Amino acid sequence: MSGPALRVYDSHRSIHEAAFGQVKEMTAIIKQLYNENRWEEAKQAEEILIEHWYDHIIAHADSEETGLYQDIKQRQPEMVETIAKLTRDHDLLRKVLEEAKHLLEDNSEQEERIQLYDSLLVINWQHSRDEEKYLLL
Ligand SMILES: [Fe+2]
Ligand SMILES: [Fe+2]
């Protein structure tokens, strides 16, 4: 979706809602699998979750930074600081996700990674609401 199309509130918000619902559900399934001691399935589900974050949420953030955010900065120079804050949220998501990925590769305790998956959900939820509030028509 290009810059101008992402400015439409309903379509952009529904992208946020759909992606958030998916990763929230996947995180809940991972917790359930660990509760049932289904280790192998849980680890596979974690790999799928991390991939899903990259393919949906991070890809969305990348496209905002090269499209929507540039478009807004050009039209409304007073929004530069808001855009910088929203971009920092994206960077936090990237950093936390990268950490979760490394911990999974290093076979850390799963509780450590689950905390990170929960953090990603919180950051993403707050970020989406701010983006909808400040940027969308
Ligand atoms: Fe965003
Ligand atoms: Fe967005």
UniProtKB/TrEMBL annotation:
One Pfam assignment: Hemerythrin
Name of this protein: Hemerythrin HHE cation binding domain-containing protein
Q: Highest taxon of the source?
A: Bacteria
Q: Which residues form a coiled coil?
A: 83-114
Which residue ranges does the record assign to the Hemerythrin-like domain? 25-135
Question: What's in the keyword line of the UniProt record?
Answer: Coiled coil
